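Dear colleagues,

As part of the handover before I leave the project, I'm documenting each prediction I ran so the next person doesn't have to rerun anything. This entry is a single chain, and its sequence is reproduced below.
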Amino acid sequence: MNRSANSSIPTGESTSLLRRAVFFDRDGTLNVEVGHMIRLNHFEMYPFASRAVKQVNDAGLLVIVITNQSGVARGFFPEEHVHTANAQLVQHVQADGARIDRIYYCPHHPEGPVEKYMQTCNCRKPAPGMLEQAAAEFGIQLNQSFVVGDRFVDIEAAHRVGASSVLVLTGAGGEELAAYPNVRQPHHVAGNAEEAVAWILAHL
């Protein structure tokens, strides 16, 4: 059963004009990777995250966050938990004068065990569903856009829609880079999200 991704914090507006976006992964890219974030007080932003988002804002590109949250399907935390963490992310960047236009998340996993979310979907990265949903809702030209993340599921999702990809070495990035030398590689490797944005802005 395929099901579209869920979204939270809809701060942007849809448009019929083709636009470009930077799609950021959340955990390990904008906030510190702590595994499944069972305790919300473990949510901690990287100090460079708001600067990275603001630089994308200033360049006129949309900022979209796409995040797998299989902890919901695995029964580690309720779906409301994801909304709360996403709200913390938005509030943090807003306090620094930056803006996230939309956050999409996938709560599914084919092995569950929470029956409501136990499914094979088109939104769990590396499937491109969240990217495609954002493109439809915001008029985004995916092959002129960028994906930034710390895992190869982010990189593969970018490849599947023709977007450019940047693997960051925060979170699991360094381990993933060493572990997967024979899969489709990122267009660039950066130390963190701010360095990734610098590369993106140089290649617009």
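Helices lie at 49-58, 79-95, 129-138, 152-161, 173-179, 193-202. The domain at 6-202 is CATH 3.40.50.1000 (Rossmann fold).

All the best with the project,
I.
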